[in-house]
Structures are given as structure tokens and as C-alpha cells.
Amino acid sequence: MPDGNAKKPSRIQKRNRRVILDAALEVFSSYGYRGSTLDQIAAEAGLSKPNILYYFDGKEAIHVTLLSRLMQTWLDPLVAMDPLGDPREEILAYVQRKLDMARDLPRESRLFAGEILMGAPRMMPHLQTDLRSLFDEKCALIQHWIDAGRLPDLDPQHLIFSIWSTTQHYADFDVQVRVLQPDDPDPHARASLHLRAMFGRMLTL
Amino acid sequence: MPDGNAKKPSRIQKRNRRVILDAALEVFSSYGYRGSTLDQIAAEAGLSKPNILYYFDGKEAIHVTLLSRLMQTWLDPLVAMDPLGDPREEILAYVQRKLDMARDLPRESRLFAGEILMGAPRMMPHLQTDLRSLFDEKCALIQHWIDAGRLPDLDPQHLIFSIWSTTQHYADFDVQVRVLQPDDPDPHARASLHLRAMFGRMLTL
DNA sequence: TAGAATTTTTACCATTTGGTAAAGTCACGA
DNA sequence: TCGTGACTTTACCAAATGGTAAAAATTCTA
């Protein structure tokens, strides 16, 4: 019974768990939770369905595992915002990191978006704890910068919302972006310039 | 056989079709296409499942009907951007209209977001025609304003993307916003001020 | 290498779900 | 008010899907 909490995951266990989670990420991010089937995940992973269920307690357990691991990755760029750095450059660097994530981890972005869009049925606890405390902390930091006259007067919470939405847009609404810019060889580069210009202006005293 | 293309929809037909579409919007926007069942829609509409299928050819037909009608509503605020108005005020007014839509039509916004997130399997034709031509037209308009020196040099396409993403964020990621701002009595008002400030700065020469 | 433990497959099962056939019920014009 | 067409319900069905039991195969260890 290797699922749940095994003490010493064997080599095979480690490999297959990773393979399953990767396949599940691919499938869940493409079709959503309800739109994905264990058969699809099994096919993508190159394993049989009962074999999948040997490693995870069920479809929901796979999804929950993915979301839990995702949360860490998701918060890292915000964690890296340094109170000791230059306010403007710290925030602009955060925008850039977020945009890079949308390009490099589109599946993770869409998985997250789908979960939130559905009302976060499985992620709510994580939001209320991890995300919430980090969000409050960084909002306070930005407010502190504002009070010290190092940033113009702005709304820290909605600034972060705008950073999230504009960057994740390029992953979550990827199809739409591609339909409207079919010939752009490097949409990411132009997006980066645009966002740097926009937030750069906003953060200038 | 009232589905498809009836000539003269009776009073009952009109009422029930409307009731069904409204129920389907509620259900689809909450659980996604695959996550929604005809039984749910039937229950929400107060009708039996076979009765639903008397008015629509099937689950997919309901979804397609909703998406088709939605596209019009969705494009209206952009259509209203007037080439003869003041560039800055026209764009800022568009931002405001979009934000109002996120507040007043959150179900429509989430339905649209879910469809795009899943790769627009049913909406792709509409995107490639209606949306595409309007997008190109308004990008050209903005570029024209820039060339005339009436707007600062910016990227019209990505400006529109940023307007879409920041405004729809308040509908699509509503749960997240509420988790992070549990005490805000009027999040919409603050969002409006924030977006006006942000895009206002961006559009200032 | 023998035996134990782990991993994988085969053969199922119960439920859900989109959809249909056909019988009944209702509304309305002649 | 009567008959015809529009509407609704009842009773189903086939396929898909999450999940299980147990046998078979493989790997690890003493």
C-alpha cells in the first residue's frame, strides 16, 4: 500500500509517482478536473488504470497532490520580493518572474486557474493559509514603501491583482492570444516590454 | 420539434428556452462544461431532463447557444469605443465598462473564461471571425491615435490584453479576491480607482 | 537462489450520464 | 366542445467512468 504515507518510497515508486503526476498535470490542465478521466491519465503515463490507483488513492488524491505541490512553486516568485531591495526594481522583477512562469509553466498556470475558476473546491485551505499570509505580508511591505515615499500612492492589493492577472493571461488565455496574434514570432518578448512599460510608469514617483 | 429552427416560437417555447438557458448559464459557469450534467440544469430550470431535450438538441447545443449569445454581449463595450472621441477617455471608459461587466455579469465572464481555458473547443470559429476582426480594427484605431501623437507610444494589442485580464480577473478569480480581501465592503470601487490610475498613467503623454 | 514483498495485469462492478421511445396531458382554434 | 398539435412525463438504455478483487509477474533480500 504505497499510497498515502509510505516510509521509504522505492525507486520504482518514486519514478512512477512522478510519471503519474506529470501525466495528470498534462491531462488536468487540458481538460479540467471533471473533464479528465483516469483512463486518459493512465494512457498519458503509459500505465494501466488499476496501476495508477495502486499509487494514488483515487482521482481526487492525484489532483490534490498536484495542487499542493503547485502552491509552493506559485508563491516562490512573490517570496523572493526583497524588502531590502529597491522598491521599483523589486516589483518589476516580480512581474518579469511571473511572466516567465506563464511561459515556462503554462500547464501549472492553467491548472491553478481552473481550480480557482471553479471556486477552489480543493484548494481553499491553501488559499486561506499560505497564500493569504504571504499576500498580507507583501501588501504590508509595499504599503511601507509607499509610506516611506519610495513609491507613488497606489493600492498594494490591487496592484498585485493586476500583476497576477496580466501575466497569467498569457498562459490561461493562450488560445485567444494566439488567435489574435497568429504571426507574432515572439509574443513573450513584446509582452515583457509592454508590462515593464506599464508597471514601470505606474511605479514611478 | 421546436429545437433547431422553428418558425414561430410559441409563448411557452420562448419562456422555457429562456428558463433553460438561464439555468444552464448558472450551472455551466459554476462547474464547467464537463462538470455540469443535464440533470443539474433540469433541476435548476425546474423541468425534467427529457423536457430539456425537447427544446435543445443536446447538452452541447445548449452550451453552443450560450456561447454564441455571449459573444455579442462580450464585444459590445469594445464596439462602443469611438474613433471620434478623446483617445485617453475612450480607452478609460472602455476599462470601466469592462470592469462593470465583470461585476454585473460574472457568470458570463466565467463561462467565457472556462471555454478559453479549455482551448475554445466550441468557440474557436467565433474567435477567428467576430473577435478577430473587431480586435484588429480597434488595434488599428489605437495605433492611429499613437501615430497622430494623441497617445504615448505603446503596444495596442498588449494594452487590450491587459485591459481584458485585469478587469475579468475580478469575475474569474472572484473566490481568490474574496479570500484575500474578506473585509472590503466595496472591492469594485477600489478596483475601479486602481485601474483608472494605472491605465490613466499609461495613457498620459 | 528461495521466499517474501512489491508491482502489474486481468476481469469485473456499480453508478452516473447523455439520450430515446412512447404514452400521456394540455392548450387552443374551428 | 372536440380534435389536433404542442408539450410533458414515465420508463428505459448504452456507454463511460471511478473503482475493486485477486491472480500473475516482477523485484528485492536474506
From TrEMBL, chains A, B:
InterPro entries assigned to the protein according to its UniProt record, in alphabetical order: Homeodomain-like_sf (IPR009057), HTH-type_TetR-like_transc_reg (IPR050109), HTH_TetR (IPR001647), Tet_transcr_reg_TetR-rel_C_sf (IPR036271), Tscrpt_reg_YcdC_C (IPR013573)
One Gene Ontology term of the molecular function aspect: transcription cis-regulatory region binding
Gene3D superfamilies with a match to the protein in the record: Homeodomain-like (1.10.10.60), Tetracycline Repressor, domain 2 (1.10.357.10)
Iron-sulfur found in the keyword field: no
Chain coiled-coil ranges: none
GO BP term, example: negative regulation of DNA-templated transcription
Tagged with keyword DNA-binding: yes
Transmembrane segments: none
Pfam family, one: TetR_N
Ranges for domain HTH tetR-type: 14-74
DNA-binding region, residue range(s): 37-56
Keywords, sorted A to Z: DNA-binding
PANTHER family, A to Z: HTH-TYPE TRANSCRIPTIONAL REGULATOR RUTR
Full protein name: Transcriptional regulator, TetR family
Species the sequence originates in: Sulfitobacter brevis
